[in-house]
């Protein structure tokens, strides 16, 4: 199932004007060591070892392990895939020591190195992972990353650029009522994975299809380094132009920036109860990746309930305006 979904996602993503051919000439990817694919972190289990060491779902891509590149080969569809059996063996060889992951981050295109201890253990989270090649890659990857509290997916790096930068927000617009913050908010996903394939005009088409309907956008704020769900209702009768009443930017000039020093990473709970309801309190758990096409977003759960970080109003006058790419 997972391999089929990955094949579908890559078929949809590749070959367009935003395909991975731009990576070699884009400074945003200069620290990715020419990798066009990587193991994307799609979920980090709360309170796990990976969570405590700073792995971030959606934003983080594993591009190397213990100083080596991720080993790959081509499958029957002609798609490049990682060798999960090799990765299992590499980690198994580190029992009693630490394994070092080289991680490329979508936040500014920076690279970080994270050491995870591989404890000697008698439980079945690692020892039962087959190394003889007789079992599927799916079983290998599940056992491999369950031990650390991670879920990964082989993904093109170019998917990290599928974001929409919120620019000027017009007064009394649906965007303003929903609580979007101009110039520091980046739309990185939506309910049901509707933005997973990217594209400059995709957000506009999704917004138009949701005219008059409340739905959820997943929004990263670069000032607070948090992700939150925003429930918004596109409308054309609010007294201005566009269904959202805000300008958005997409592409080279609108990448997610590096994190300001001293700001801790945060994330948010996804829950079906948010649909059609006021925006909920932000909760500090891992953010699942937007799923591939045709895959429904599965909600996470948590009992954590810290205070909402967006209690401070960001002054409009403090923002340097940029050219609007599109009015929604």
Automatic annotation (TrEMBL):
Lineage per the UniProt record: Eukaryota, Fungi, Dikarya, Ascomycota, Saccharomycotina
InterPro entries: GRASP55_65 (IPR007583), GRASP_PDZ (IPR024958), PDZ_sf (IPR036034)
Top-level taxon in the UniProt lineage: Eukaryota
Keywords: Golgi apparatus, Membrane, Repeat
Disordered: region residues: 280-328
GO aspect biological process, one term: Golgi organization
Organism the protein comes from: Cyberlindnera jadinii (strain ATCC 18201 / CBS 1600 / BCRC 20928 / JCM 3617 / NBRC 0987 / NRRL Y-1542) (Torula yeast)
Boundaries of every PDZ GRASP-type domain copy: 37-157, 162-253
Annotated localization: Golgi apparatus membrane
Pfam families assigned to the protein according to its UniProt record, in alphabetical order: GRASP55_65 (PF04495)
Annotated Gene Ontology cellular component terms: Golgi membrane
Protein name in UniProt: PDZ GRASP-type domain-containing protein
């Amino acid at each position: 199932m997972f391999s089929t979904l990955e094949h579908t996602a890559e078929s949809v993503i590749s070959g367009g004007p935003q395909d991975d051919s731009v990576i070699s000439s884009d400074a945003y990817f200069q620290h990715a060591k020419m990798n066009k694919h990587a193991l994307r972190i799609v979920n980090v289990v709360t309170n796990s070892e990976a969570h405590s060491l700073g792995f971030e779902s959606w934003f983080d891509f594993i591009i190397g392990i213990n100083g080596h590149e991720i080993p790959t080969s081509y499958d029957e569809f002609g798609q490049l895939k990682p060798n999960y059996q090799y990765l299992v063996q590499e980690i198994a060889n580190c029992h009693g020591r630490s394994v070092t992951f080289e991680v490329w981050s979508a936040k500014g295109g920076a690279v970080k190195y994270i050491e995870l201890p591989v404890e000697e253990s008698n439980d079945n989270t690692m020892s039962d992972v087959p190394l003889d090649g007789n079992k599927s890659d799916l079983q290998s990857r599940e056992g491999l990353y369950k031990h650390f509290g991670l879920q990964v997916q082989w993904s093109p790096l170019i998917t990290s650029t599928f974001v929409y930068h919120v620019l000027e927000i017009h007064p009394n617009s649906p965007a303003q009522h929903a609580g979007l913050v101009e110039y520091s908010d980046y739309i990185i996903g939506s309910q049901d994975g509707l933005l997973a394939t990217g594209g400059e005009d995709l957000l506009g088409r999704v917004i138009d299809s949701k005219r008059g309907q409340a739905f959820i956008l997943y929004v990263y704020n670069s000032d607070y380094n948090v992700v939150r769900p925003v429930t918004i209702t596109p409308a054309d009768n609010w007294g201005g132009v566009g269904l959202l009443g805000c300008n958005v930017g997409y592409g080279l000039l609108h990448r997610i920036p590096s994190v300001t020093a001293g700001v801790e990473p945060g994330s948010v709970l996804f829950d079906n109860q948010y649909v059609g309801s006021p925006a909920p309190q932000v909760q500090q758990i891992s953010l699942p990746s937007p799923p591939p096409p045709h895959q429904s977003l599965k909600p996470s759960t948590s009992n954590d309930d810290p205070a909402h970080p967006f209690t401070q109003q960001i002054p409009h006058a403090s923002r340097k305006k940029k050219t609007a790419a599109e009015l929604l």
